Every structure is written in C-alpha cells, then in structure tokens.
Amino acid sequence: MLFRSDWDGPVWRDDAVEIFVDPGHTEKEYFQFIVNALGTGYDGKRLDPLWSGKWKCAAKKSRNSWSVEAAIPFESLGQKPKAPGEIWGINICRERRADKSRGLMELLNWSNVMGNFHRPHMYGHLLFVDKEFDSKSSQWKPVADVLGPSRIFVADGYWDLDKDGKSRSEEHTSELQSQA
What we know:
The chain is mostly beta strands and 180 residues long. It is 7% helix and 38% strand. It has two helices and eleven strands. It has helices spanning 140-147, 175-179; strands at residues 16-22, 31-36, 41-45, 56-61, 66-71, 87-99, 104-109, 124-127, 150-154, 157-161, 167-171. Strands 1, 2, 3, 6, 7 and 8 form a six-stranded antiparallel sheet that branches. The protein has a three-stranded antiparallel sheet with strand order 9-10-11. The longest helix has 8 residues, at 140-147. The protein is globular and about 50 Å long. The two termini are 28 Å apart.
C-alpha cells in the first residue's frame, strides 16, 4: 500500500490514526490531528483544514503492525497547562484499509461516535491530574464516581480504572523521545 507523504494532505485516506481534542469539553471547538503509517500528519480545527498547529508525530512500522505517537502542546491549541480536575473531550479513531482493491475500510474509534468522527458531543473524557496523583491510592474512587470505568492516559502509559476505583497500569516507551 502506498501512503501519502505530503503534510496536510488527505492522509485520512491511508491507514491512519486520528486524534480529536475538545478543550474544556465545550462540544463547539475541537481540533483534529491525523497520522498515517509513514508518520505524515494533518491538522485542522473543526472542519477547517487551513488551521495549522505546532505539534510532532512519529510512526513505527513492524512486520505485522504499526504504531503512531503524537505530542500536541497546549499552546498549539490556544491553551495553558490545565489544573487538576479539568476535563476535556477526546477521541482516538482509526481508518483501516482492509482491502483497498475492493474499497473495504474499517472505521474504529475509542469513543463510539456512530461512524462520524466529527461528533464532539460523543467524545470521551480526558481528566487532568497532578504529578502527585497516586495510581495505587484511594484517590481513584472519586474519579470513578464521576467518570465511571475509564482509561486514564499519562506520560509513560495509562491506567485502567474500574467502577469501584481499582486501577491497573500499563507502561510504554516513547518513539518521539527516542528520535530526539
């Protein structure tokens, strides 16, 4: 499969990952970031493809898989670092060209937006916590009471939180940091 290498081109027509961010979870203003398997990116604000942000992305291909990583600074979104407890809307989506010769495509999304990625009222929640937040402590119970079962992403991985506030963590390594 050929992948597009032109930045801000139609990379959503490739196998690609899309990240949607709705600061403040207002459901009015959201940003879209797309990365294909080559590491080529696209960005837009709502449905405005002329908006450009300052962000980084990388892709890594393996024999039977590929992964992407993105770093989107708050300043690029017109935001300042967030206080603990603030919630943004977020969705992570994927286009998979299962059989390009037959035009088959799979649309996958973390928060189910019913086939249209541009539905910010259906995005999941991004909860900001401070550095001292302890994943092994009882601090999770109030979060679980508000959000229910959740996946909480942090700089080096994520925590899965069940409805009772119990958590399990998963770590990952950074492709962007390894390229620096």
